[in-house]
Amino acid sequence: MSERLGTASNIWITGASSGIGEAVTRALVDQGHRLVITGRRQEALDGLSALAPERVVAARADTTSREDLQSISSALETHGNLNMAILNAGTCEYLEIADYDSTVIENNINTNLVGTARCLDIALPALRRTVAKGQPATLVIVSSSAWWFPFGRAEGYGASKAALTYFAHALRADLAPEGIDVVVVSPGFVKTPLTDRNDFPMPFLVSAEDAAGRIVKGLRQGRNEIAFPKRFTWTLKALGALPQGLIDRMAASMSRKSRNEQETSG
Description:
Elements: E1 10-13, H1 19-30, E2 34-37, H2 42-49, E3 56-58, H3 66-72, E4 84-87, H4 102-132, E5 137-142, H5 155-175, E6 180-187, E7 190-191, E8 206-207, H6 208-220, E9 225-228, H7 230-240, H8 244-265
Helix pairs in contact: 1-6, 4-5
């Protein structure tokens, strides 16, 4: 039986000020856990900490900034030994190939991959101190299912999430001897302020609250891979297993259709 979240735990959550991070924060507060929440918007963090001021500490930081993260490092153990870090902060910027700009790639990589990696500068020492005291420690990295199929315009976002997932799986191998679990979360489309900007159909869209429920349930069950919704993720995995030539033709066809729809609506 999994020991995760079975009793009141001390948890750090990044990207907590909106979307999935906010919903996960609310779910864990309702279950009695003690949280340190991080995001860029102080007002949003303060609103969440007001849900349970004695159990929720707001620690504002930009996860791409080493200085910001170092400034909140001591806050991670405000409630005691850190049992879990949920690294959820991320962004999504799409590339318009006719106006190619490598800055789009850089922004996705910097926030989704480098920002997550920098969080480990302060999370990993805290999790190691927890393990040294004989307590369970879990690192949760929120990636995406997008990288399983090469969607047009998603060069930057998909590449960042593919790299992030590889990073997480390699960490799982390296940290296993230390007793630190690494969990990878791969959501499909979730209704958040980021996806509200999307100008294309999003099949099997789920609410942030639904996503949070699935994540928390998966953690409690001791799962190291949490992917949802199943119909969407299974479809992407099946498509990704096709011969590369067929994948290329399908991806190109979908990209042309998307461009035509944009031109028609414009």
